[in-house]
Amino acid sequence: MSEMNLYLDNAATTPIAEEVLESMNEFSKKYFANPSSQHGKGREAREKIEEAREKIAKEISAEKEEIIFTSGGTESDNLAIRGVAKANPNKKHIITTNIEHPAVFETCKDLEKEGYKIDYINPDEDGIISVENIKKKITKETLLVSVMHVNNEIGTIQPIAEIGKLCSEAGAYFHTDAVQSFKKLKIDVGEMNIDLLSASGHKINGPRGIGFLYAKIGTRIKPIATGGGHEFGIRNGTENTSGIIGFARAIELGTDREQITETRDYIIQKLQGIKGTLINGSTEKRIYNNINVSFFGIEGESLMLLLDDAGISVSTGSACSSKKLEESRILKSINVDELYIHGSIRITLGSGMNFKKADYLIEKLKENVAKLREMSPFKLEDTTETEVKNE
Q1: Catalytic residues
Q2: Is residue 280 domain-shared with residue 235, that is, in the same domain?
Q3: What's the domain range around 365?
Q4: How many domains does the chain have?
Q5: Looking at the structure, do residues 244 and 262 belong to the same domain, yes or no?
Q6: Which long-range contacts (CB under 8 A, 24 or more apart) does 18-25 make?
Q7: pLDDT for residue 102
Q8: Is residue 155 located within the same domain as residue 68?
Q9: Tell me, what's the pLDDT at 376?
Q10: What pTM value is reported for the model?
């Protein structure tokens, strides 16, 4: 088969859609004024922002006043956690999980140093958080529970509606990082009892540098950066107007989820035919475009580079932490063996993926896994049957 270029790192970022670029360019030419300015051109820009805010709010069944524009998921996560902590200083207990994105996990680690009690819940071996385990930890002193909707590495879908109900009954705020699920899964913030939700534009073929925090009306939250009182006084700084327009346009785009799901399942089936292969995370409660796979006894970093030479872009984990050459916190938390952890890659599919491209991926994976295993000091034949998965 001839060489082809395959971009399979859509959980890190998606290519910006042509329709989105066109809408941003048209907007920037016509509505260039500062939306906080009181003259006519400023009011025109403000009107367009508010139209986009309403469109985005409807996507999660929220009110437009509950959408606060930010620079992306990381800022939204920080604003949610630090902002609520700042506004509610009498409560010092937060519950989160060991599989959160660094924007949540490291923020909680920082608050721990400031005297907060943080409980980190482990998932089961499928990568799913138990509602019962959160229930055991939640008390009347709990300020916030933060559990991501879809894990960014292994793609597992968490029971956030059940967690939201528990938090509502206990009087604790519930925050979910929905960066990997927004526009991919149905979200109704009211039905799911969500108080705070983070999302980002560049995960849905929109622009980078734009995201939002949904903050339910009545949620006590303070800004974490001072300034001119933008975004209802919660997120200061001149709005990224063209980014907001692009984000709103991106939510109108369609995705062939059925085709992507079928291709994902086809790839997983083929991968399971490779000896010493482990699919990480639940195969049922999993976002439709994610495959996280480990190969016994090799280095995922080396495999990623060999695939890159073949025109295939994948990652070794979260783009926000993959530059740190250390074991995946997520895979460790679901008890993946070290000799599998080190041989892990994340494949995240996008629009246009098909079986022909999938066959090329499998061909190159088999070829390069075999090549790396020839050089590896860890041999499949040196292990017991129980140590080698999918034999």
Answers
A1: 320
A2: no
A3: 6-14+256-387
A4: 2
A5: no
A6: 19/249, 19/252, 19/253, 20/205, 20/206, 20/207, 20/246, 20/249, 20/250, 20/253, 21/246, 23/245, 23/246, 23/249, 24/207, 24/242, 24/243, 24/245, 24/246, 24/249
A7: 97
A8: yes
A9: 85
A10: 0.94
CA distance linking residue 172 with residue 219, whole number of Å: 11
Q: Is residue 226 part of a domain?
A: yes
| 236-293 pLDDT per residue, tens | 999 999 999 999 999 999 989 999 999 999 999 999 999 999 999 999 999 999 999 9
Residue 211 has a pLDDT of 98
Task: Please tell me whether residues 167 and 277 are part of one structural domain.
Answer: no
142-174 pLDDT tens trace: 999 999 999 999 999 999 999 999 999 999 999
Same domain, 147 and 26: yes
Cite the DSSP H helix spans in the chain: 18-30, 40-59, 73-87, 102-113, 131-137, 160-170, 241-250, 257-271, 300-309, 329-333, 338-341, 355-375
Torsion angle of alpha carbons 40, 43, 45, 51, nearest 10°? -140
CATH number of 287's domain = 3.90.1150.10
In a domain, 1, yes or no: no
Looking at the structure, do residues 175 and 265 belong to the same domain, yes or no? no
Provide the b/e sequence for 242-267 (b: ≥16 CB within 10 Å): bbbbbbbbbbeeeeeeebbebbbebb
Determine contact, residues 174/164, Cβ cutoff 8 Å: yes
Let me know whether 99 and 233 are in one domain. yes
Amino acid identity of residue 316, one-letter, is T
Euclidean distance between CA atoms 12 and 353, whole angstroms: 17
Summarize pLDDT for 50-87 with one digit per residue, the tens.
Answer: 999 999 999 999 999 999 999 999 999 999 999 999 99
Report the amino acid identity of residue 253.
Answer: L
Tell me, yes or no, whether 54 and 136 share the same domain: yes
d(CA 354, CA 223): 45
Residue 136 lies in a domain: yes
